[in-house]
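User: Round two. Same drill as before: sequence, then structure, for each protein.

Assistant: Same drill it is. First protein:
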Amino acid sequence: MDVETQNDNSPNVKAWLGAMRLRTLPLALASTLTGGFLAMEEVSLNGSVLFMTALTTTFLQVNSNLANDYGDFSHGTDNEERVGPERAMQSGAITEPEMRRAIWIASILSFLSGITLLYLAPLSWMIRGVLLVFGVAAIFASIKYTAGRNPYGYRGLGDVSVMAFFGILGVVGAYLCQTGEVGIDIVLPALTIGAFSTGVLNINNTRDIESDRNAGKITLVVKMGPERARLYHVGLILLGCSSFVAYAWMHFAWGWAWLFLAAFPLFALNAYRVFTTREAEQLDPMLKQLALSTFLFSLLIGIGQVL
């Protein structure tokens, strides 16, 4: 009987894991790790703060993924024309009430985790208040990307949101939670992670351009067209790489701190393949490759700081 129960439940577990899109989590963690590792120039790394920052980021990413599954299904975007992997609600494995409940749970966990992070971080009460506002905004933004009435992801604003929350808030927030203060130059690595993260979204939207256009989902790719979207992607990769080199030039002595350069060939390969690939189905592996390359990049930053 235990075996039968396990077999009956396993498809649903697989559906929930698919809806959470675990392959996107390394990308979300990259902003946390980058901000935390760069803070090691100024302070000793606070492991508890880094863990809570990573946990909060993970909850936010999962919440965004669940809401995206719900929103695209509700708006009819996830249909038989879609090129990417079949979504959980699209397949019928998860119902609308179940997904709404999961989004509420993920939102609450994101909030509680964020509150704990702000309590542990060495911040003034004024900065805690500011970050709390931004944190609540991040929860709201993670849901409103495709869910609800007039979602901003259907108006070509998804790229701006990714840059703001994955890049600026993610990196600067993680750095600030470690050090208690920031300088304007931290915006450069924030632009780096923001650009790479936006590149992942751009690959996704380039892959899905036909189904998105037919469903009325007006992404930036739909507005600019596939050829300009590929040029835009190359520009994002160049922006990400050059921004961090500029930061490193100002902060790092030559040596192990420049180990992050080892990830640049992976970014160059991604830009080349996205630019030259015309078949939508063949773009999907490039999405995962860029996410993992960004995560590796953040790890190399940390290794370089330690060495």
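Second protein:
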Amino acid sequence: MKNLKRVLWIFFAAALTTGFYACADDDETDPVTPPAATGLTQNIAEIALGDSRTDSLVVALSEANLVSTFQGSGTFTVFAPTNQAFVDLLATDPNWNRISDIDATTLTNVLLYHVMGSKVMSGDLTDDTYAITLNERAPQSDEYTVIEVDVTGGVTLNNSANVTAADIEATNGVIHIIDEVLLPANIVDIALDDERFTSLVAALSRFGTTYTGILSGTGPFTVFAPTNDAFQALLDSDPTWNTLNDIPQTTLEAVLDYHVIVGSNNRAGDLTQNQVLTTRSTRTLSVSLMNGPQLITSSSTQGNVDIIVTDVQGTNGVIHAVDQVLLP
């Protein structure tokens, strides 16, 4: 590993001298000169090359031909996995003995899932939010998958990876070291990783792997996901319901089907006034944009339902959080 890194250092230095590494604009060939006021002298690629914790990341970037991206003039936030994180990743597949065994498309998708297209310091990350990555492994082009962020007791990504060293500034962004390689998440993974959807996960789990299996498929899907508070309000509406297990299974199944649109990845920008959406249960929802994005259900007793979080993009669909359980 050290010999490979030394070769990469020599190659990288030569590239800077000859202008081989182009910036984000192909017409630029000069290395980026940082503003004098910052005192920064190294870009993200140079910092990764010089940090012993990121030897494997450097190899991965080289295999995916992404080194030049992080030498360029763009602005990035990179969640950089440690060497041990890559060792752990390789152990998940018996066909992977080294990073070069990972096919180029998969490796590129994984690496871009660790990158944001702007500089975000750790203090600017907020709890229960979603970071938009540069990974485009989504149902349609120009849709970028997200990472779920928690900052209680330290920064955690997707309820799993911990930021172990933060705010390593570069001339073109910032690096945060993490202890796990993140894999692009589908909509089931997103729901499992976000503690605001534990009741939804519990409701789905009443049917074994039926729903999780369906929603882990190719899709695309649009899911209107009720929060825990929304499910609690549903339980409070019937004095005989103390837990989700008290709801008759056929009733719960009809309710869950009413939250899923199959065959489309409807982002917030795709929703239009009075649009009619056909759900998995074949019943319809109507869209209202008069007072923010809202849904109108088939139930005469339910008022407009607010969409409170939009465009949580996964690899096989998109989630929008709603503040009520939708009643068919």
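Residues 187-322 form a domain with the FAS1 domain fold (CATH 2.30.180.10).

User: Perfect.
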